[in-house]
Amino acid sequence: MGTNSREVGTFGRAVAAELRAELARKNVSMRRFSVETGLPLSTLQKTLAGTRVADVEDLYAICAGLGIDPDEIFRRAQAELDAADPNRRKAHAERKRRMLG
């Protein structure tokens, strides 16, 4: 899993918050979770802090370790963002409508 110098966006930070919440619900320390997933502790810390853009492989490993589908994490993150900003919700609904035809 290579280096990643891109800036984390709003959605990425929301995903990180959902992953942190799920880890807290599982009541597992980050150090132990790092060992269980095989991800370096620093990668896990930065990803869950929302300061590092997650690679697809890392995100999948985190979600698999938490026993949750990545789609569920994305849905939760989007719902939180939509709830916080009605204009964002409208824009998201419009993008989804265009994508689905």
Distance between the termini: 36 Å
Structural shape: elongated
> If classified by CATH, what would the architecture be?
Orthogonal Bundle
Quick check: average pLDDT? 89
Please give the radius of gyration in angstroms. 14 Å
Strand count, sense and closure of the main sheet?
A: none
Q: How many E strands?
A: 0
Query: Segments where pLDDT lies below 50 for 5+ residues?
Result: none
Reading off the top of the CATH hierarchy, the class is best stated as Mainly Alpha
The DSSP helix count reads 6
Helicity level: over 70%
CATH topology: 434 Repressor (Amino-terminal Domain)
Domain HTH cro/C1-type: 19-73
Organism: Sinomonas terricola
InterPro entries: Cro/C1-type_HTH, Lambda_DNA-bd_dom_sf
Protein name: Helix-turn-helix transcriptional regulator
Describe what this molecule looks like in 3D.
The chain has 101 residues and is mainly α. Helix content is 74%, strand content 0%. The model has no long low-confidence stretch (mean pLDDT 89).
Fill in the keyword field for this structure.
74% helix; 0% strand; single chain; 6 helices; 101 residues; 434 Repressor (Amino-terminal Domain); mainly alpha
Topology:
Blueprint lengths: L9 H17 L3 H8 L3 H9 L6 H11 L3 H15 L1 H15 L1
Helix pairs in contact: 1-5, 5-6
